[in-house]
Amino acid sequence: MSLSVPQGHNMVRGISQNGGVVFYGVDSTAIVREAERLHKTSAVTTAALGRLLTAASIMGIMLKSTKDSVTVQLRGGGPAGKVLAVSDGSGNVRGYVENPVVELPPRADGHLDVGGAVGRDGTLDVIRDLGMGQPYVGQIPLASGEVAEDITQYFAVSEQIPTVCALGVLVAPDLSVQCAGGFLVQLLPGAAAADIDRLEQNIAALPGVTQMLQSGMTVTDMLAQALAGFAPEVLDSYRVEYRCNCGEARVRRMLKSLGRAEVRRLCAEDPTAVIDCQFCHKQYRVDLQKLLADWA
C-alpha cells in the first residue's frame, strides 16, 4: 500500500494504479461488539447483524455526501426476522435484528448458519437517502441470506457493477466477538479481461476474512493480497463506529409526524408516551400534554 493508515482509523478507501479497480475495507470488530452488547444477540444473529453492519458502513463511505444515508435490510423469512442496518455518509452505523436470540445448529462445514437464520425466501433492500426528498430504493431477491453474496448480487443486478464482497464475524463460545470486518472491490467500466481474471484468482486464493484478521492481518494487509498485481493505493482512511443518532428532539418530531389528532388520542389513553429506541434501547418519556400545548 502506498499510504500508511493513521492509528485509530479502521476504514480505508482506494484505487488501483491503473484506475480500473476501486476498493474499500473495514475492521468492524468494535462496531459488532457494541451491537452485541446493546442487543444481547445469540451467536448466529451476532454474525448476521455484524455482517450487515459491516457492509452498510462500507456503503455509507461510498455515498457522495456525509449528509446522505443508506439503509440496508434483509427480509428472508427466517427465524431472525428482519435484519436492518443504517449508515450515515461517514460510515457510522447502527442496526438491529428483529429476533435477537436464535439458536441453530452449525452448517456442515462448522460455520454459523447465517443463511438459515436470515432465511433465503425474501429480499435485500437498499434505500439511499440523498437529501432530494424521494429516496432511491433498490431491491433484489436474496441470493443466499449469507449477506456477502447478497451484497455482491445487489451491485451486479441493481447497479451493473462487477463486485466482490467478503464479510466475516467470529463469535467465541462465550458469545463475545473475537473479530469482524470485510472488504468490497469493484471493477470500473472498461476493465480488461486480464484484470478480471487476475482479481478472481486473487480472491479465490484468499483465506476467510476472520481467519486473516485473527492471524494479525490489518485491513490494508487483506486488501494488498486481494489486489496483488494491481498496485493498490489508499486514498482515504476513516474512523467509523456504531453510532445511534436518537435524541429527545427526534422522538418529539416522530410523535408530531403522527398528526395532532393521533397524539390527542394517545394522550387520552396515557399522557406519557414511552419510546424505546430500537437501535440503542435508550428510553424516552414524552409528556404528550406538554407536546400538544407547545405544538407549532
Structure report:
By secondary structure, the protein is of the alpha+beta class. The chain has 2 domains: 11-238, 3-Layer(bab) Sandwich (Hsp33 domain); 248-293, CBS domain Like. It has 10 helices and 12 strands. It has helices at 29-39, 43-61, 114-118, 148-158, 193-205, 209-214, 219-226, 248-256, 260-269, 288-293, and strands at 11-15, 21-27, 69-75, 83-88, 93-97, 123-129, 136-141, 163-171, 177-187, 233-238, 272-276, 283-287. A 5-stranded antiparallel sheet has the order 8-9-2-1-10, with helices on both faces. It has a 5-stranded antiparallel sheet with strand order 5-4-3-6-7. Strands 11-12 form a two-stranded antiparallel sheet. A hairpin with a 4-residue loop joins β4 and β5 (93-97). It starts with 10 loop residues before the first strand and ends with a helix. The mean pLDDT is 92.
